Structure formats: structure tokens, C-alpha cells
Amino acid sequence: MEQPLLVEFDAARRAVVLTLNRPARRNALDLPLLHSLRETVESVSRTHPDARLIVLRAAGSAFCSGMDLAATAGHAHETAEAVRDALLAFAECPLPTVALVQGAAVAGGMGFAAACDFVVVADGAKLGLPEVRRGLVAALVTVLLRRQLRERELRELLLAGELISAARAREIGFATSVVPVVQLDEEATRLAAALAQGGPHALAATKHLLSMLHPRSLRDEMDLAIAAHRSARDSDEAREGAAAFLEKRAPNWAASH
């Protein structure tokens, strides 16, 4: 049986490398993968006490195409909570985190990149939040991006729902760097060397401080977001959006009212 998440410890870089391993599904997120991500990140200090870094990468041609709508059908609320918990595990992890993005990072895929401290994107990659085109709200991802992007760029992503290029992701401040796809791992090695110069406790304290320097805590904002997500997920528009996506047709929004 396929392991949805591969975990290895790279002793040379003192990095725990997590590989999304559903390439046949473009690494779409299902419940087993979401649970594995959360559990692995939350336990990393116990399982790999020498680790100084977490690297999130993906097998195959795409980083992550978002939720696996077929696999999670009928489990909308459980899936939303699993996404929230996994995103929080990354965002609140005391270790620095690096996402290596190739191919496509769409919807929840972009969200998991956003939950990392560094986002290295391969040139030619496409990123975006097309949820509104499926009658949904990219609520949980919005919490993270609201802290990272300027208002206009965030509205561009959320309301237009178009995919953007790696260059545009760098321009708006989402991507830390853009490199040829063959240099993704090399860039992770460079970041590992830079981060190794910092004190582990100082890095963890800096991350915690950054997470708290907002009017609301990250967890409070996630709670607001999941309420918005549930409201949209239970709507007629969401049902029409999901049906259109699975049937590979344009949604008929008029029929959802």
C-alpha cells in the first residue's frame, strides 16, 4: 500500500525531509495524508531531536493540487478540521520549515507552502487559489496569506482565482526565491546552512513572536476561518462547484440559487 507521506532524516543537513507521495493524484490532500503531516510535524522533536529544519517536498510533477474532492466527499467538516490542524502544526512548529514547490501548488497546496517559513519555487511552477470558481472560500489559507501579502495582491489571488507564475509569486512576496527545478534541493541545502548559524531556541522564540504580533492569535483566526469555510462548503454553490469540477465542465451558478 502506498505511503502518502515519506519521512527521512538527512543527517548532513540535519533536516527532516517530508515528501508528499501521491504523485498519481498530483499529491492531492486526503485525510490519511493530512493526519500524517500533522502527526509527523508535531512529533518531530521527539523522533528527530537533532533536527534543525523541516523540508516539505513532493514526488512527481506537481507539489500539491489541493484537496482530493473524490476521496473526501461526505467528510467536508472532518477534512476542514484536519487541514486546519495540519496547517497549524507547520505554522507553529519551532523548527524552521522550507517548502520546495514544483509544477503546481493549488488551493490547499498553496496553503501548505504558505504555512512554511521559506517557499522555494521552481521556475515554470503555477500557484493559485481557485476556490471561488468551485463555490468555496479559501478561508484557512487566507489566514496565513493575510499575514504575508499586501491587501491588493491577496484580493487578486482570492477573488480572481487565477493561477500565477513563479515570477509573480516572487514579485508579490509569496516565494522566497525562484530557481530552476533542478536546483530546488540545492537551495534547501543553502538555507539549511544559513539556519544552522542561528541558535535553535532563538529561532523558535523568533517564530513564536512573529506568530503573536497580530491583533488576533493565529489559532483564533483559524477558528474564524473554519466557520467561513463550513458555511461555504455547505452551500448549493459548493455542491454545484464540486459537481462541475468532477464532471469537467463549467459551473452553472444560476442553478445553485
Question: Would you mind describing this structure in some detail?
Answer:
This protein is α/β, with parallel strands linked by helices. It has a single domain (1-181, 199-257), classed as 2-enoyl-CoA Hydratase, Chain A, domain 1. Helices cover 47% and strands 15% of the residues. The protein contains twelve helices and nine strands. Strands 1-2-3-4-6-9 form a six-stranded mixed sheet, with helices on both faces. A three-stranded mixed sheet has the order 5-7-8. A hairpin with a 4-residue loop joins strand 1 and strand 2 (15-20). Helix 4 packs antiparallel against helix 11 (218-233). The longest helix is centred in the first third of the chain and has 16 residues, at 76-91. It is globular, with a radius of gyration of 18 Å. It starts with a strand and ends in a 10-residue tail after the last helix. The mean pLDDT is 93.
Main features:
257 residues; 2-enoyl-CoA Hydratase, Chain A, domain 1; 9 strands; single chain
Write the layout of secondary structure elements.
Layout: E1 5-10, E2 15-20, H1 31-42, H2 44-47, E3 53-58, H3 69-72, H4 76-91, E4 97-101, E5 104-106, H5 108-114, E6 118-122, E7 126-128, H6 139-146, H7 151-160, E8 164-165, H8 166-171, E9 177-179, H9 184-195, H10 200-212, H11 218-233, H12 236-247
Parallel strand pairs: 2-3, 3-4, 4-6, 5-7, 6-9
Antiparallel strand pairs: 1-2, 7-8
Helix pairs in contact: 1-4, 4-11, 5-6, 6-11
